[in-house]
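Give me the fold.
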Amino acid sequence: MDIIKENIVMILVILFGVASSAYNWFEESAKKKKNTERKAREKEESRARMAKAAEEEKIKIRKEKNAEDKKLLEHMPSKLSELTPIVSEVVNGYDFSECLESIQLVDLSDGEIILREYSERLKLDYRRGISAYIRSSHSDFPFNEEVVRDNYNVLLDKAEDIGARAIAKKIGFNFVGDEQNRLDRTDRQSLRKTKKWED
């Protein structure tokens, strides 16, 4: 009987030991899982913080660049009141009698084309005029900046349009100002009264 009791006690001790080991194993596994999940969460949070910081830095740099670009563009004749005197000075430096003779031989719509062609020939002069305007307020202006080049091209296109009108005015033509920007036919009639149109 004592032997049976001893065996039972031994079995219970063994079972307890197995149960204890199993519990410890499960507890350790749970801890490892929690640690793994915590590290993964911390890594993800760290990655998110870094991404946010990087995005904020990009926004900061972009804002600073925009502010710098804005300051640069302030030195350019972006307003019509600044650009038109430059164009007028260029146009006034040339004689357009040949342009007048050409326009007198074509239709009004073709006359507009001729005016723009003559204005396009002055593109280099417009560029020089714009550059001189800029250098008058910024001697070391960064002309190679992308925003400057883009705005320069826009200004040159505007200058060519204004130049065509300035040439038209100089030779006695006026744009009607409607959406087609057609030349005024009354100006064509007045030209016929000049010596060029007399028999």
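Confidence is low (pLDDT under 50) at residues 177-181, 185-199.
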